[in-house]
Design brief:
With about 170 residues, the protein is an alpha+beta fold.
């Protein structure tokens, strides 16, 4: 019987400490992440690098360590690529940051996975991303986000037009 009372007191004490800690560091709020922009970069004949700008808000009074970003891209319900990128750094206490996450998309992989895609096509896509952060006292937390857009599969004349535009 004494052991049961001791365990109950210990459990109550742990709840009190956790509540005090959570109230003191803003743990009742959760960090958030959203895709603030998507921009093409390094458009080539065989691949495209898209940069996903991820805005992260940290409501905690301690820095929020970043671990990994996972991503999955699909078009017309057909997944054409997925992967993950290890991250370094953290989001400052009670602060925010924008993280640029590059994803390289080989056109051949997209054309093989999605029916009817060929050079010159405009392909709609859905990107699902997940940011893995280390939340104090709770451990790893995945912050999901998604966006939609279009990818244009270039043709040789399309690339030449782009190069001429850049040269002006």
């Amino acid at each position: 019987m004494e052991h049961r009372h001791h365990a109950a007191r210990l459990a109550c004490l742990m709840v009190i400490i956790l509540c005090a800690f959570c109230g003191g560091c803003g743990m009742l709020q959760q960090p958030s992440a959203s895709i603030s922009a998507v921009r093409p970069q390094n458009v080539g004949l065989s691949e495209l690098t898209m940069v996903f700008d991820v805005a992260i808000d940290n409501p905690y009074s301690v820095a929020l360590p970043l671990h990994r970003m996972d991503y999955s891209l699909a078009s017309r319900g057909q997944k054409f690529m997925s992967g993950q990128t290890d991250l370094e750094g953290s989001v400052p206490a009670n602060g925010s940051t924008v993280l640029a996450v590059p994803v390289t998309i080989p056109y051949r992989q997209l054309m093989n996975a999605v029916d009817g895609v060929k050079a010159g096509s405009t392909v709609p896509y859905t990107a699902d991303l997940g940011l893995l952060v280390d939340v104090p006292a709770l451990g790893d937390m995945r912050l999901p986000m998604s966006t939609e857009g279009e990818i244009v599969i270039p043709t040789l004349p399309g690339i030449m037009d782009r190069i001429e535009t850049l040269g002006r």
